[in-house]
Amino acid sequence: MSVSEQIVMAHGSGSTMMRELIDEYFLSVYGSAELAQGNDSACLKLATPTTELAFTTDSYVVTPLFFAGGDIGRLAVSGTVNDLATSGATPLYLSLAFIMEEGLPLSELRLICQSIAQTAAEAQVSIVTGDTKVVPRGKGDKVYINTAGIGVFLSQRPLSGANCQPGDKILLSGTLGDHGITIVSARENLNFSTNIVSDVAPLNHLVAKVLQAAPATRCFRDPTRGGLAATINELAAQSATSMTIEESLVPVNPAVQGAAEMLGYDIYQIANEGKMVAIVPAEQATAALAAMRTDEHGKNAAIIGEVSGPPASGLPAAWVRTPFGSTRVLDMLVGEQLPRIC
Amino acid sequence: MSVSEQIVMAHGSGSTMMRELIDEYFLSVYGSAELAQGNDSACLKLATPTTELAFTTDSYVVTPLFFAGGDIGRLAVSGTVNDLATSGATPLYLSLAFIMEEGLPLSELRLICQSIAQTAAEAQVSIVTGDTKVVPRGKGDKVYINTAGIGVFLSQRPLSGANCQPGDKILLSGTLGDHGITIVSARENLNFSTNIVSDVAPLNHLVAKVLQAAPATRCFRDPTRGGLAATINELAAQSATSMTIEESLVPVNPAVQGAAEMLGYDIYQIANEGKMVAIVPAEQATAALAAMRTDEHGKNAAIIGEVSGPPASGLPAAWVRTPFGSTRVLDMLVGEQLPRIC
Lengths: 342, 342
Prior knowledge:
Two copies of one chain form a homodimer.
Chain A: H1 16-30, H2 33-37, E1 42-60, E2 66-67, E3 70-71, H3 72-86, E4 90-101, H4 106-123, E5 126-135, E6 143-152, E7 169-172, H5 178-188, H6 204-213, E8 219-221, H7 227-239, E9 242-246, H8 254-263, E10 277-280, H9 282-294, E11 302-308, E12 318-321, E13 327-329
Parallel strand pairs in A: 4-5, 9-12
Antiparallel strand pairs in A: 1-6, 2-3, 4-6, 7-10, 7-11, 8-10, 9-11, 12-13
């Protein structure tokens, strides 16, 4: 491969080569009017005067860059869109910053940028500002991406995990574990099954539908790193409640379940990238579920458990009831299960 | 060094170890109320209803992490604050995301976080949301930081490089080349001089003072990667003007000048991290200069050149007039001068 077909250090130097890379690979593929202006910061015009904003960031270091159902570009847009959506905000604007390793094939960068463009269009967000850095061989791993995002609250109060109350229902938008098992499968060439595919997707439209149908929804949370176990433990801690999941109600793809068991992974601790947990008052839970199921990313949604009062002193706050009727603690991951999942 | 004194993969896994790292190293050192809430996105309350926002991002991959006058933490806050300030916005909120390499000493992380806290306080910005990723040894270089920032326009229209007009004056807030020469000196153990120190600093207060004194200021730009040469070329291109710098008027620390000459660097192409270029109508240039000089980071400010009409067809748009009266092209960097300067 010739030097002209891969990233070299000069692509990150503020030189004319960086300018050309930005024009040909970024602006022409996912450029917005704001990005095209080329100022050091984008000036954003909001449609209505606003006093509340949602703001979030994530870096993406997934390996491999391309996997069944997605790639690092789709992940970088979806993950940040979903973090905004969980607060009840409408995602509007993203920043996107590359840290590229010298030697990254430009053909791979092109594919990633096309995926970014497609996912941003799907989520209806604009990429308005960016940054390009290059590090020498051996100081990175092809490409890392950071996105930050801004959302506005159109009609909805900000949501928070602290809002959960005893009696609320716990909804999950679909099957658990697909992303994590896809990544480990791609990385280790395990070839478990052809129908294991990452769920990575922007879920802001799903969240908007749920909020329309169930405006009293307490909060959303996407069960990414640490999986459902981390999400439920965090929400219980934030709201000083306890929460119980009914194992028999949790949707799981049997091929994913089999792979998780073979690998010794707890399905509740595996990362998801296109799933949403919603905590909804009981009287609106059916409406919320129906709304989730109308969305293409929520077809397999289910009510999987409920919120109770504070745990007894010294007892854990997150539990699973097994199909045999016994309950066990929904343990959070302590160390590392699967690095660089996102 | 024991494992407990350095970053391990589990610090990035969404596990309890990540939670403890966030609490002890990030929240307790530079935490804001929004960061402490622990939601997936921060909810920001603006003091007044707003329809225009400034938004920017940069990743920081500087090596070494610590250098005379600063470190990667001070750089990560200052760089993004300065990009917001250039648009005339008041920087308010930052996101801050770490990509750490397994093995990063926690003692170094602590110093970086303290520097972040100090620089954010100096700039009067809050760090409201963040992210933590860990990559294996050999897939990073100790730590990379991304910051994104949001600013608001209090009373000022957005500024743009496109606003420059013939007759405008070009102001520079201080000496050129200090950051770049400091970095190369630290990296290569050159020990040129004890008085070569990085200029890295947040310049939002300096910008606010200039805008107060010279409200017709056309634009600001901070001459980082690519140096003053890139800044002047970009501004001339954006505004379809030509620009000429008077070499005799450009402030340079003699020790930095000597080092640049020894290394064969063009002083105009060296990166700065605490300098601001302002383009100001001639009738307000003196007031703008006086305002710059009242700021601690603008003591050596000078008027260094002026804007003229569009360049003749086929001719370059950016020029330097030498002390001997001749003019030469202010060339932009084509390839790589000094990698990982910021």
